[in-house]
Design a protein that fits this description.
- This protein is mostly helical and 544 residues long.
- The protein is built from 22 helices and 11 strands.
- The protein has a 3-stranded antiparallel beta sheet, with no helix packed on it. A two-stranded antiparallel ribbon has the order 1-3. The protein has a two-stranded antiparallel sheet with strand order 2-8.
Length: 544
Amino acid sequence: MKHLTKYFAITTLILVSSCRKLDVAPTDAYSILNFWTADANVYNALNNNYSLMYNSGLYFGAEGLSDNAYSQNNNDLIQIASGNANSLTSKFAGDWAYYYSTIKSCNQFLANVDQNTTLGAATLDRLKAETRFIRAFEHFNLTKWYGDVPLVTKDITQEEAKTISKTPKAQVIEFVLNELKAIVPALPSKDQLPAAENGRITKGAALALQARVLLYQGNRMAEVVTACEALMNNAGTNGTYSLASNYGSIFSDPNVSRNNSETILSLQYVPATTRTWTDFWDFAPNSVGGRVNALAPTQELVDDYIMLNGRGITEAGSGYDENNPYANRDPRLTATVVYDRYNWNNGGGVNGTSKVIYIKPGSDPTRPGPDEYSAGRQSSSPTGYYWRKYFDPSALTGFTSGNNLHLFRYAEILLDYAEAKNSLGQMTATVWNQTIGALRTRAGFTDPGALSYPGGDVTNIIRRERRAELALEGIRIDDIRRWRTAETVLNRYVHGAKFSGDPTTDNGYIRVQLRRFNPSRDYLWAIPSGDQSLNAQLTQNPGY
């Protein structure tokens, strides 16, 4: 629990000399006694909390835990996905520390910010509401992974951290929901934000997190509907949101990434200066500048993209051609995954060039042998697929990008709404057209077979739609855990493309990794053993 007692950086700014009284603030430097009186310091502390809220490693790494992707060089992801994790697994400790360090920083902000007397009550209420959102988000992430966890609502001492007990998950969830409801009045709507404040937490963000938290509980679907309708039907109060016109541009166009009608809350990045991310360097094909492949899409993900007529590739009448497997598919497949003979367009970057990506061995007419795929070669994708989603054509060397990473999009609200209405037996053609139909229209579908409400049980259709729409956004692992399907989809091989005659294939599809998921254990992560050694009150989760 050392991370519950880790002091935020401002507390190291006490520059009192030995000849001064310790309760007198210095006049030539900020100390713990006067730090918060300066408006700039308050905003710097708030910005620090924003920077701690989440990061690109957590965002993309979650895909490697799901059946969407495979990582060949992240030992933690390999260990967890193969069912070999334990209480010493470093990701369990690292994520736990990350979330609690952020909570510590938020609690220190909330405990001290009222020392400021110049910003005004309304401004301070807003800053506290933003910080309470971040603290609620961290608690939600903790209980999502670990179940019962310590609920920390104040800046605790080292001694308190050594004795704090776990709080039941249900109680943590209620805290999160109550916080989100309480802060909405103090937050502006998206429409009220000046351009300089894009990226700050709004009423819409609080409602979007409410919807996600409620959806993940599984038995509060009526409340999910209410939260979603507050965003869908109350633009004047909670902000105006709509689907952006082009799916791929949300992630790859620098201008759209930073300012569009769909984003509810994103991780904010600043191109080439303050804050960037470079994960895509290890997602891209070698021939367009990729380095070491760290996260490869799976055949299972590719297979879940439907045909343009709305049918799955194994359904009668789909028109799927195994010899031309990427033709006439959901356009989001091309916006998300790089496959054999993919036409890679650099957009506005790298002289606006395009290149055909040859992946299947021997497919490149200019030279024999493999190009982008070679089993066992670390720099190549082990599945024969690469990522296109989040490619930034304006990125600097090493795919250094300033594009934002989206935590909450309006598309997710529509998917939440569809799932909740369907779960309540309230799915109608009207709801379908508002949600799945709208998403498919935006994606580029035109066939009535894909756009028209099919009637009957559409549970699997909605689930498949979530997977296609939200791929590479860290949501898939949450979905298969809350649906309790992880024990099925993570208890078998994940595969790559049909490139090899190797005997370790399934009908020609490359076996990439054998996944193992123990349903009596793996729906929760282990409490880190190091934190248990510091606090005997932290009982271990079952099976570890």
